[in-house]
Design goal:
CATH topology of one domain: Rossmann fold
Mean pLDDT: 95
Shape: globular
CATH class of one domain: Alpha Beta
Distance between the termini: 65 Å
Strand order of the largest sheet: 4-5-13-10-11-12
Largest sheet: 6 strands, mixed
Number of strands: 13
CATH architecture of one domain: 3-Layer(aba) Sandwich
Structural class: alpha/beta
Number of helices: 18
Length: about 475
């Protein structure tokens, strides 16, 4: 759609000082930029690591300073008024196009319903369990039921843009996954022309829930199961991306990170841009999400949209805790992972850790805490949340357990505003709930069921009397 189409909208209804910005025309000057050396490259290719030094790349808008000509409070109004416009490409994460990924024209934006997930206030009972009131931002309400859709909306929109502008006739999208990345990649790739685009996912055999496995299969992806854990799958796709013409869709791809920044933009907007007392609680996983969230808040702070950077509380299982160990010791080393119910976060060498380290050193040193929690705390925090009306996954349970532990140890003040990230939908991990109810976890999980949280169906005769007797009902 071109500008002439948008001119048919009743933009005259908007205030004059925001009217010309409602339909974004700014495209910036986006380039790949190495986080370790001076290498830069244009976006005319799929690129993941620096050809000069091998370090990770990020996307930098060299024209970002132009956005500072608009005062921060006016940007707030632009986003609020833009949300009222019935333009499909602006309904999702590209509501924040100028900050998120300005290089993508609106005609190439793919929107499948992602983004703008609700902030749900924990009820009083759950607040007492944790030690403070808090909000849950549940990204399980995205199309493929996880936060990965934010990054895929950005990455696959870029693929669509590349096909149109570079005349590509064959694209193979590939990713390694513990479940959610594969579901999102397969879903978004399936929306493109199947005669041009193919999708392949690598999964660690036996380490993905049946529900998650069903998703890329249902979207028509080629699903390859290999022995080992996620890190083994990641090494394979990294080697493929270095040697063959494939499009890597893991968070090592910096264009994935661009879409995931939308989480930060949304949280700020949902809280009225009040971030001075905010702590965002995030499971680490492959470290792409925590990277994107910090970068997103930095964008808004540099433009004066928010006045203060929030604190970040990153959480890991003790079965996969390299970042927590780094934060406590000052030195980083990969760890051998053990089985975890927070399956999507069971990563011993997060690929985006170098970006986390750089962001902490430059802007978040006194605003970044990372702690680890045990498996019992993770599963029981998920169960407690679900019993209190909050649909969280095991990674959401990991976040809640982390906040509960941080409060108990005095690492954060209960007077702050807390937003807890639940990355996926609880139903993807219902098998872990059932293992808890059956007290059937393998010993390596180190989880023992407690009777107060176990639930099971009760078999009764098919009569109102039997139901009434069981429930102890009294006649009127």
């Amino acid at each position: 759609m071109d500008r002439q189409h948008y001119s048919t909208l009743d933009l005259q209804a908007f205030p004059a000082h925001v009217r010309d910005h409602i339909i974004p025309e700014y495209s910036g000057n986006c380039v790949y930029e190495c986080i370790a050396c001076d290498y830069t490259a244009s976006l005319d290719r799929f690129l993941y690591t620096c050809p000069a030094c091998g370090s990770l790349l990020k996307i930098t808008d060299r024209s970002f300073g132009e956005l500072k000509k608009i005062p921060g409070p006016v940007w707030r109004e632009i986003f609020d008024y833009r949300a009222l416009v019935r333009v499909e490409a602006l309904q999702g994460i590209f509501l924040f196009k100028e900050l998120l990924f300005p290089a993508i024209p609106l005609q190439d934006v793919i929107y499948l319903g992602e983004g703008h997930t609700a902030l749900v206030r924990a009820n009083a009972q759950l607040g007492r369990y944790v030690g403070s009131g808090f909000f849950i931002k549940n990204d399980g309400f995205n199309p493929s039921a996880s936060f990965k859709d934010r990054g895929m909306a950005s990455a696959v929109s870029f693929i669509k843009y590349s096909i149109r502008t570079r005349g590509l006739t064959e694209v193979l999208g590939i990713c390694a996954s513990t479940g959610d990345t594969s579901a999102a990649a397969a879903l978004y790739l399936s929306y493109l022309d199947r005669s041009i685009v193919k999708s392949v996912v690598l999964l660690p055999k036996g380490r993905v829930t049946p529900q998650q496995l069903s998703q890329p299969l249902g979207s028509g992806a080629v699903v390859l199961e290999v022995p080992g854990v996620f890190d083994d799958c990641m090494r394979i796709v990294e080697q493929l991306a270095e040697t063959y013409q494939v499009c890597l869709l893991n968070s090592k791809n910096p264009i994935r990170i661009m879409g995931q920044k939308s989480y930060a933009y949304e949280v700020a907007r949902q809280l009225g841009y009040k971030t001075d007392d905010l702590t965002v609680v995030v499971p680490v996983g492959n470290a792409g999400n925590v990277t994107a969230i910090m970068e997103g808040f930095l964008d808004m702070h540099r433009l004066g949209i928010i006045e203060e950077l929030p604190h970040i509380l990153a959480v890991q299982s003790r079965h996969a805790n390299p970042v927590a160990l780094w934060r406590s010791s000052g030195s980083y080393a990969p760890v051998a992972v053990r089985p975890s119910v927070a399956q999507a976060a069971m990563i011993g060498d997060p690929v985006s850790f170098p970006k986390v380290r750089a962001l902490v050193a430059s802007d978040f040193d006194d605003r970044f805490t990372c702690i680890d929690v045990d498996e019992q705390e993770i599963i029981e925090s998920m169960l407690q949340a679900n019993r209190c009306g909050c649909v969280v996954c095991t990674q959401g349970g990991e976040s809640i357990a982390g906040l509960r532990s941080a409060l108990a140890h005095g690492l954060v003040s209960p007077e702050r505003t807390f937003v807890v990230d639940s990355t996926s939908h609880q139903l993807k991990f219902s098998n872990f709930q059932q293992l808890y109810f059956d007290n059937a976890f393998a010993p390596e999980y180190e989880i023992t069921a407690r009777s107060g949280l176990v639930n099971a169906p009760v078999q009764l005769a098919a009569s109102a009397g039997a139901v009434a007797d069981y429930l102890g009902l009294k006649k009127k």
